[in-house]
Design goal:
The N and C termini lie far apart (57 Å). Strands 1-4 form a two-stranded antiparallel ribbon. With 476 residues, the chain is mainly α. The radius of gyration is 26 Å and the shape is elongated. Helices cover 55% and strands 3% of the residues. Helix 2 runs antiparallel to helix 3. It contains 13 helices and 6 strands. Strand 2 and strand 3 form a beta hairpin.
Length: 476
């Protein structure tokens, strides 16, 4: 958690032959230059090893933030709107054709999806905003990975990492929400599944669900206790049991249920849309992630109900709530209770846990189960502790868990999503753009070939193994 998105890449594009501005002639050239910079950065980011991509995200975000004001200025000029109280006149010479490689489309395993072509500036805006939202989500993912470092983080470091991750996810939520409203303005459904209105709405709900769970995680010390107990490098031999006030337990229950509701909305929206090209749907891994996130959220709510019951002295009911949480996670069914298949299910779960631990150590592809295994470990720890206490001291009857699951009510939202405000060029920058570009249309020379692929050797580079003066062409 959060989901590990791949950043899309794009083909080369020059705005010089598509737009013209008599009020700000340099705007077209500057926008073209910023777009080409972003294209090259995305291409280089894709070639980096997974271990180096996290540190390069700030470069990607900076390039997008530099490009977006120019992009929205072009859009404002075409719509007759002012920017920083200044009128911009932009004339459309011909429709632009943009190519982006979608990241959410289902494709043949081992083969990346082909670039999808779209028309219009709105297509470009939606894809750039979506790329920025992916980058913010990956930044949140990098922050949360520090919680599982070899050196156990302090409480202050843990709180700071969770707060930063939550803020990044809220930024992603506002970007996806804005893109969803922008996609509704399309005259025809877009060819790329990534920027469909339903897909963007689902991604916005997914980010809001993850941000809501992080509010719970900040004060929920049980996952940190389990991670510390499983950390072989930790040298703290005495670990204090977490203490959560009863009032906050009730709030965490409501927040977890709200996160489950948002994840359910995301799952419903992501399973619905299909692109107009080949009837392509969202890939199964993202759909499964949204489904697992709902399971994790509802299981957390069951666990907090159990903690509340245990604090009230009802340990039998608390154990029943833990059983309900296991059923919400899907690791336990009514048919498995008391049967031989329970042993096989536990062996399979332990194998999956070890596999997930290795992913965390590598720092790649971890958290694809949306925290199901982590929550299962917490429930298993509490179940062992409370059952032992009930057998030795309380001896209370454990009620069935299914009636308790039926009483799960609606949640309570903790975040009020903020609207995304498109960035605009400042007055000084606009004043400099009134001058014509120094090199005329030379901005087109900075744009690479639109047919080049991410895996090719850059044009003009030396051929491996050739004489240093060789440029790739045979000597005649």
């Amino acid at each position: 958690m959060p989901y590990g998105f791949l950043l899309p890449t794009t083909a080369a594009l020059s705005f010089v032959g598509c737009f013209e501005s008599d009020s700000h002639p340099s705007l077209i050239t500057v926008a073209t230059v910023h777009r080409e910079i972003l294209r090259n950065i995305l291409k280089k980011h894709k070639r980096l090893p997974l271990s180096s991509q996290a540190s390069n995200l700030t470069v990607v975000i900076s390039a997008i933030l530099d490009y977006l004001p120019c992009l929205f200025a072009l859009d404002a000029g075409l719509s007759g709107k002012s920017v920083s109280d200044e009128e911009i006149n932009v004339v459309l010479l011909k429709d632009i054709e943009v190519e982006w490689r979608p990241c959410l489309a289902s494709s043949v395993p081992g083969r990346e999806a082909a670039r999808v072509r779209g028309r219009g500036l709105d297509y470009e805006i939606c894809f750039v905003l979506t790329t920025l939202a992916y980058a913010y989500t990956l930044m949140a993912r990098g922050q949360l990975l520090t919680l599982y470092a070899a050196t156990t983080p302090t409480s202050e470091q843990r709180a700071a990492a969770i707060t930063n991750a939550k803020n990044h996810l809220l930024e992603a939520n506002s970007l996806h929400t804005y893109s969803a409203s922008k996609a509704n303005e399309f005259t025809a459904p877009p060819a790329a599944i990534d920027i469909c209105s339903s897909t963007q709405g689902g991604l916005a709900s997914l980010a809001l669900s993850e941000a809501t769970l992080l509010v719970v995680l900040k004060d929920d010390l049980y996952p940190a206790l389990v991670a510390q107990d499983r950390n072989n490098n930790d040298r703290d031999w005495m670990i204090k049991a977490p203490e959560i006030p009863k009032v906050r337990v009730g709030l965490f229950t409501k927040f977890s249920l709200a996160a489950g509701e948002h994840a359910g909305v995301a799952h419903a929206q992501l399973t619905g849309p299909k692109s107009t090209t080949g009837n392509i749907a969202v890939n199964d891994s993202l759909v499964k992630y949204a489904k697992d996130l709902r399971k994790t959220s509802r299981a957390k709510a069951c666990r907090f109900f159990g903690i509340e019951a245990e604090l009230s002295g009802k340990i039998g009911e608390a154990i029943a709530w833990l059983d309900a949480g296991e059923k919400e996670l899907g690791f336990k069914t009514n048919d498995e209770e008391g049967s031989k298949t329970k042993v096989l299910a536990k062996l399979k779960k332990n194998w999956i846990e070890r596999k997930e631990d290795k992913k965390i150590v590598r720092g790649a592809d971890w958290g694809s189960d949306a925290g199901r295994l982590e929550e299962a470990r917490v429930i298993e720890m509490l179940d062992k502790k409370w059952n032992k206490e009930n057998d030795l001291i309380s001896s209370q009857r454990i009620p069935p868990s299914d009636p308790l699951r039926a009483t799960l009510s609606s949640g309570r939202n903790v975040h009020i999503p903020k609207a995304y405000i498109p960035p605009s060029l400042d007055a000084d920058t606009l004043a400099r753009m009134r001058a014509p570009p120094e090199n005329g249309d030379d901005a087109t020379t900075l744009v690479g070939d639109s047919d080049d692929s991410e895996g090719e050797t850059p044009r003009g580079s030396a051929v491996p193994g050739a004489f240093p003066t060789a440029s790739g062409s045979p000597v005649v």
